[in-house]
Write a structure and sequence with these properties.
With 206 residues, the protein is an alpha/beta fold. The protein has one domain: Rossmann fold, CATH 3.40.50.2020. Helix content is 29%, strand content 28%. It has a seven-stranded mixed beta sheet. A hairpin with a 2-residue loop joins β5 and β6. The two termini are 25 Å apart.
């Protein structure tokens, strides 16, 4: 498994990849076992961001990586998918001094609710906690575009794809992660953990 800090992170913050991983380990957020991912694949490792983000100091330090990266970018609003991305979006928005909103699924469709809105022409930063296939983020981006917003960037805490997931941002540097790892994953039919008799669990929010 390879890991690294996000693009140009060393210039934005003193936090190193090892520091990020230490925060997850110390908070019990880095789980080992047999897990069913949202993508349907199985893995022996799971990043439960909610457990690290429950500590305000950790949330501040992690989200500072994202906020620092976009500090010189004109952002009007930060948006995140419920439920995992809400804390990330809120803290990044706080540090940038802009408002924070989130999307929710209703009857399986990602949408704005609770009176939230994106005004035409508003410059939007999308935030998330963990990305594996990027499905939720792609859905949020669709919401941004349908409401006339301008996608300025995407920031998230953990990239489990090893950097393979790319979002439709203007420049590669407009997508960043605090921690990138090429996580082990298996299809259900080829999972050695299943073959050994283990049953996968789904610790996430969905």
């Amino acid at each position: 498994m390879k890991s690294e800090i996000g693009n140009q992170r060393s210039e934005d913050t003193d936090i190193k990849a090892a520091d990020v991983l230490a925060m997850f380990s110390q908070s019990g957020a880095l789980l080992e076992g047999h897990f069913l991912l949202t993508s349907g694949n199985h893995s022996n490792q799971y990043f439960q961001c909610a457990k690290v983000l429950q500590y305000p100091e950790y949330a501040k330090r992690l989200c500072e990586i994202i906020a620092a990266h976009f500090r010189d970018t004109s952002i009007d609003v930060v948006i995140a998918p419920a439920i995992g991305g809400i804390v990330v979006g809120q803290e990044v928005a706080r540090q940038l001094g802009v408002r924070s909103i989130f999307t929710e699924r209703k009857e399986g469709v990602m949408q704005l609710r609770r009176g939230f809105e994106i005004r035409p022409g508003e410059r939007v930063l999308v935030c998330e906690d963990v990305v594996t296939t990027g499905g939720s983020v792609f859905e949020v981006i669709d919401v941004v575009k349908k409401n006339g917003g301008m996608l300025m960037g995407v920031g998230f805490i953990v990239d489990r794809s090893g950097g393979s997931v790319r979002f439709p941002v203007a420049n590669p540097s407009d997508q960043i992660a605090c921690y990138t790892t090429e996580a082990v994953k298996y299809t259900p039919d080829e999972c050695p953990l299943c073959e050994s008799g283990s049953t996968p669990v789904k610790p996430g929010s969905r």
